Amino acid sequence: MQSEVDNDGPLAGIRVLELGQFIAGPFAGTMLAYYGAEVIKVETPGTGDPLRNWRTVKDGTSLWWRSIGRNKKSITLNLREERGREIARDLAGRCDVVLENFRPGTMEKWGLGPEDIKRINPSVVYSRISGYGQTGPYASKPGFASACEAIGGFRHLNGFPGEAPVRPNLSMGDTIASLHAVIGTLLALVHRGKVPDAGQVVDTAIYESVFNMMESVVPEYADAGIVREPSGTTLTGIVPTNTYRCADNKFVVIGGNADPIYQRLMRAAGRPELAEDSRLSDNAGRVTHQKEIDDAIGEWTATLTLEQAMTELDAASVPCGPIYSVEDMFNDPHFQARELFEKVDVDGDSMTIPAIAPRLDKTPGRTRWAGVTEPGAHNREVLGDLLGIADEELDQLRDRQIL
Fold this sequence. Notes:
Helix content is 39%, strand content 15%. By secondary structure, it is an alpha/beta fold. Mean pLDDT is 96; it is low at 1-5.
C-alpha cells in the first residue's frame, strides 16, 4: 500500500470521516479519496460495509468493494455503543469533512449530528446524503435510489409509451447524488478557504439530484401545461435523434438534429431530397415529420452492418455511436488510450477497476490502493497515531466489540 507521502492529488491535506454505507455516501468518499483526500471510513465491527458482500464475490470480498473502497483507511467502530461514538466524535474533531448517508435523525440520536460536531470543530463541512433531504414531510422516509428515481421524475420518462417505466440496471440515483454531494462539499471547502472557520452543512437529497436532471420539464409544465412523457428510443421535440437497427442486428445511435448535420446525414443516407426539403430545414419542421425522417434513416441503416454505418456516418461528420457492453469497452482502443481501466494489487493478485473522471492534467486523481480486505485494517494507524489511543486500550476495545 502506498502512503499519504505518495499523495500529490489536489485534495491532499483534506481529511474526511466517512460514516456512510452502501453506495451514495461511499461513492462520494471514493471521489474525494481519488483526488487526494485522506478518507477514514468507519465500518461496523466484524461485518464491515454491507457492500463488501454485494454482487460478484471473490475470495470472500465483493469485486465492487475493491473499487468503491479504494484509497480509504478502514476503521471499525460500534456506533451503538457510547465509547464508539466518543471515538467518532474525536475523529470528527480532527477532520475537515464529515460525510454520512444515514436516515435523517440517526446521527443526531447518536450525538454525532452537525451541531454536536460543530461544538468541537466549528470549521467542519458536514456533508449529508439522504433520500429526501433533512427537512420536509418525507425526510424520515427510507430513501433508496429506486424510489427516489421514481419520485424525482426520471422513471416517468424512461421507457416506452403505455408500458411500465424502465430502470437501468444500475443505481443511478445513488451515483448522481454522490456527484452532487462532492460538488457541494467542494463548494463548502472553497467558501471555508475564503472565510476561515466557516463550516457548513451540505444537504444532498437523492430525489433532488435526480430532479436536477429534468432539463426543461418544469417550465414546459408551468408555462405551457405540457407533461413530458416517455418516448422510447427518441428524444421528445428533437429530431432526428434515435436508435436504428443495422443489417447485422446491431444498433447505432444517431444524433443528427442540428440543421447542417441533418443535411449531411440525409445525403449520406442517399436521400438528398430530404436534405433539401424546405419542410425539414429546421428542428420544428422535422419534429412535425419525425416518422418520415426516422423511417428513411432506418431503411438506410438496415442495408448496412454497424461497422459500415459507423464508417459512413463518421465520414459525413454525423454524431453516432454503437451501444456498448462492458466487453465492448474493454476491446475499444479509445477506452484504452484514455486509460479508463486501472490495474491494482489485491493480496498479490492483479485486478482491474474503473478509473474515475474528470481528468486533471496537473493534479490527476489515481488509485493508490484497492479497497482493503479486512474491515478495521487501519484501526491502529488511525486510532493509535491520530487519536493517541494506546495499543492496550485498542485491544480492550476490540475485546468489547467496540472495534
